[in-house]
Amino acid sequence: MFSKKYKQEMDNIKINADVKNGVLEKLADVKSAQNEKKYKRSKILWRIGTAVTACIIIAAAVFVNQNGNNNINSAPEKDLSASGDLIAAASYDVIFNRIEEVRKQQNYNKVEDFLLEGSIVTADDIMLYTKNEAFATGTNDSDASSNKGSSYTETNNQVEGVDEADIIKTDGKYIYALYNNKVQILKAQDGILTLVNTLYLAEYFDYASNMYLSSDRLIITALPGSYSKTYIVILDITDPANAKEISVCEQSGYYQDSRLIGDTLYLITNYNINYTHIYKDNPKSYIPCVGEKTKAEPVSADSIYMYQCDDFEASYTVAASYNIGDGKLKSTQSVLGRCDSIYCSTENILATRSCYHSDENTDKNYTVVTRFAISGGNIEYKATARIDGTLLNQFSMDEYNGNFRFVTTVTKYTKIENNKTDNNSRMVVMQSTNTSTELHILDGNLEPLGLIKDLAPDERIYSVRFMGDIAYFVTFRQTDPLFSADLSDPENPKIIGELKIPGFSNYLFPFGEGKLLGLGMNADESTGITECMKLSMFDISDPANVTESHKTSITDTLNSNALTDHKASLIDQKRGLIGIVCYTDSGCYYRIFRFNNGFEKIAEFPLQKQDCFLTRGIIINDNFYLIEGSRASSFTLNDFAPVSTVKY
Amino acid sequence: MYERNFAQIAFEKHSDTVYRLAFARTKNKADADDVLQEVFLRYLKTGKKASSDEHELALLIRITINCSKSLHTSAWHKNTTSLDEGLQANEYEHNDTLDAVLKLPLKYRTVIHLHYYCGYSVEEISKIIKTRPTTVKSQLFRAREKLKKDLEGVEL
Predict the structure, then answer these.
(1) Closest Cα of chain A to B125: distance in Å?
(2) Min CA distance, A561 vs chain B (Å)?
(3) I need a surface site. Which of A162, A213, A443, A479 has the fewest CB within 10 A?
(4) Residue A452: beta bridge partners?
(5) Residue closest to A232 by CA, chosen among A200, A261, A206, A210
(6) By C-alpha distance, which of A621, A599, A401, A409 is closest to A519?
(7) Chain A residue closest to B36 (CA)?
């Protein structure tokens, strides 16, 4: 049919993205629009502009990718203390020289360890350490996500009082939804949704990633196209329909993680240096810069602590704190060496880095932990330590009563003698691998206190939850032991329970009195092959005798962001509701389960497959709101009758 | 800050519609790009949003038609139409239906586009381009006759 064909063919005529952006930009400036020259001339200039920009972006990407891992062959630096703690740089020159060393390392033939005296914690060393300095610290309430008493859903934070960034935020009156470089601000009044404002960020940032909401402030973290710095946009939203910009701050590096505690925003970025483009007399070329946008200054040398790791590279972990009231930088500390994971309590930030140790006999993984104290918004480097194994995620770490607890997966590769060489005449090494789980307790100064080793051999960690004196963690290879560890005596941690069930949990959430909710997967008992998603409720009223009191298999669901993102799911302990995105063969659904002595599916909403993992469900008073990429819908909470929908 | 003015919001909504009408009229992407920009700049210069969403789209279509009259396309293009058709070989996927429409005279392909792509009725088209309905009807009729000849066997 003609009309169908014509429509189809016309639909293929699309506007070039550069053209689109160009027009949008021109439309932004009303005054200049009135002075618009003959469009033919401006068209030519603008076309040249885009060609040049494209070249620069490609060139930048090439430079960034040239950075690689390098192994250092020389003896330990003299400027590191014996205890393994780091020392601040005396001057920019010291840092420059350190980075220069990376450039000198060109070959991978020999890998030598950088053992620093007393910095590797082994079982024998534990016996010698009996320090237990009391250390005043904030509480670490493991029920942070319990929604005690709040009538609207908050982010599933790990630690109470420490807010984590998310793509959906609400204060019970307005819902802020970040999607595709736009923030939609919706008013939610008794279930009726109205769109009161949209913030367009695409012209300013390549990727707006996360938000925080705090009384009258909206904070957005974002990246520009070149990815060399991260921006924090602080807006005044006393009147959400008229958001006012308070300030934009910039910090060198790519967003790693952040937290909001009270009025202070903590931002941690990883900053890679292209060591072929650094100049000794230009600190801005190799020192991280922090501050207000366009006025960012290199941080002071004494705020940079120098790091050693077997696979050293020219990169920094940059930590900075900002006051969200006036939008100004408060303090900053950096470490020369990037980080992989962040844990934050009300008193401390732990930045961790996985490293790899290699010597004649064994290769193994270990983690370097750096502690920064944060009080009153000031970041202060305190200590560094190493522990065997690698951490799964932020939930593998915890601070309690002044001590730090970690659960790691330790992988050891034992070399077997072999005389083969590859094409480059390098020794080909045969390895046998074994894995096990360890639980470490370090004191406030990151000195070892207690250790449990060789747990669950041949398995690896899938989830961890610390709850005060007890730690629960799940390992898996074919069956899933859920371990309970008693940590009430930090120097003598003990495993007190082990529950073996098929499948595993990826996340564990406290779910009220004596209950622990597990989101994970079912697996075949004999082969260990995963089958479908599963919700488990564990009875932990007696931690030494944990049972799986109830469970439900979501048989059609093979995947869900509930398994990889602890903020993705609705966990409402007070109302006994769990909301998750289910990815099935027939499509994506948002499903709500109620737990009341058993799991029952009480609602299901079909979602568009595209970006279904960016869907969130939140509850405000007596209504349930489903926020998708391009629309928000509200329902009554008791029977999920639809109330209103807003498209944007 | 970070908010969009009425012209930018209209652009987000209607850029594709305006672009495709501009393309149907100018027959090449370069001119369609220029018309696209000019249309929304002119809309911006009116100073305020149209009285309703329907009025806004109708207004944008009228502006598009005004901006894409042959006087407004580049003189170079006007003077070298035959050469252009060869150069445009790679601009879009050539297919019979689209080519046949683009071969029609300007006024015919405009009403064809408004009717078959935008979905407007004769009444609506006559209001938008300010022509009598009978004129629109006969333009559509003649356009269809021509198309039938070019696209043998295709139902209209």
Answers:
(1) 17
(2) 30
(3) A479
(4) A439
(5) A210
(6) A599
(7) A23
What are the pLDDT digits (tens) for A253-283?
Answer: 999 999 999 999 999 999 988 877 888 889 9
Q: Any CB–CB contact under 8 A between B152 and chain A? A: no
Report which residue type is found at A166.
Answer: D
Interface test with A, best of B2, B121, B145, B156 (most A CBs within 10 A): B2
Query: Residue A399 above 70 pLDDT?
Result: yes
The question of ipTM being above 0.90 is answered as: no
The region that residue A553 occupies, defined by phi over 0 for left and psi between -120 and 50 for alpha, beta otherwise, is beta
Q: How far is B84 from chain A (nearest CA, A)?
A: 18
**DSSP code of B123?**
H
Residue with token string 């004494």: A302
What per-residue confidence (pLDDT) applies to A431?
A: 63
Q: Which residue of A has its CA nearest to B43?
A: A27
The answer to whether residues A582 and A629 touch, using CB atoms and an 8 Å cutoff, is no
Whose tokens are 């060139």? That residue is: A59
Query: How far apart, in Å, are the Cα atoms of A212 and each of A56, A136, A167, A227, A416?
Result: 33, 28, 9, 21, 52
pLDDT averaged over every residue in chain B: 84
Backbone angles phi, psi at A127, to 5 degrees: -60, -30
Give the number of other CB atoms < 10 A from CB of residue A527.
9
Listed residue (A551, A634, A641) closest to A602, CA to CA: A641
CA dist., res. A113 & res. A119, Å (int): 12
Looking at this protein, which amino acid is placed at residue A138? G
* Residue A150 pLDDT: 62
State how far the alpha carbon of A268 is from the alpha carbons of A108, A398, A636, in Å.
31, 18, 40
Tokens of A209: 């990633």
Its pTM stands at 0.74
Nearest-angstrom CA–CA distance, A446 and A385? 6
Q: Which residues of chain B does A183 touch, with a Cβ-Cβ cutoff of 8 Å?
A: 2
- As given in the structure block, the two tokens for residue A210 are 């996360």
